[in-house]
Amino acid sequence: MSRFRIAILILVLLLAAASLKVHVPRTLSIVDAAGRPVPAYVAYRYEGSTLNFVHPVTYDASVVALARTGAEGRVRFPFAVHAHLPFPMQTHTSRWVEMLYVPSLHNAHARFGPDGVSQPGTFAFEPRNQRVVVMDASDRPDLWQGTLGQLSSIIQRVVPKPFSPTARLRDRDPLTADLALELISQFRKEYDGFLARHGEAARPMPRMPPALNDEEKRRWEAMVAADLAAEPTWGAQTTRLFKYYSTLFQEYETELR
To answer: What is the pTM of this model?
Structure first.
């Protein structure tokens, strides 16, 4: 083989290496604060960065998919290959966990990328061990209400819209369709459980933002007082925020089946 052909072959191989990202299967472990394995649902996707000299720009290499652990609290991400423009025009893709939901702990707040991030009092991601420690949100109505928001958001991102035969999730990814149906059922359980546990509890006065002048403090206090008067309990606010989804998700269930 001539030197020219060798050079061309090397160039092709370099371009391929710069344009393909292979994600090998990897296992993530989920435990509670005591280190016990807990069953969980995981929503994940793949994302990369596009060269831009003004501000960071990302590109989506996949849609959001769902996975579920077994009783041992482990989920295995599948093999994946993504093609993109050569570096530096586009970087290789990375796996992002958009939501990690543990039903027994009423906690769906974990969201992190390959380098990991932790939110004290909510979850802690250990990248080296590929382990996530999830805290119990049962006694925290603010966190439990946030779980309802996370679940409703992910369900809406997973189910294609507008509904059409060509966009049916079940035809493209039957596992994610099945798990989306399970998440809808879990959302209803979380909603009913929240109202039973915290529905009659009074909402607390939120912390005042810092660095307000006297007039801004007065307006803030008046706004908060009006809000608490209109919705004095966690149940009143949560019903307003999430009751709508009971009807919406009935349509989703028809699409997913």
So the answer is: 0.86
Helix pair 234-242, 141-158: axis angle to 10 deg? 0
Domain ranges of the chain: 21-136, 138-257
Kind plus residue range of the DSSP H or E element containing 174: helix 174-198
- Find tokens 């989506």 and name the residue: 60
- Distance of alpha carbon 80 from alpha carbon 188, whole angstroms: 33
How large is the average pLDDT for residues 177-193?
A: 96
The sign of the CA dihedral 58, 61, 66, 70 is: negative
Q: What is the DSSP letter of 44?
A: E
Model confidence at 128: pLDDT above 60:
yes
Residues in the chain, overall count: 257
Tokens linked to 199: 């529905």
Q: Which helix (H) or strand (E) holds 96?
A: strand 94-102
Residue 38 exposure: Cα atoms within 13 Å on the Cβ side: 25
Distance (Å, whole) CA 90 – CA 85:
5
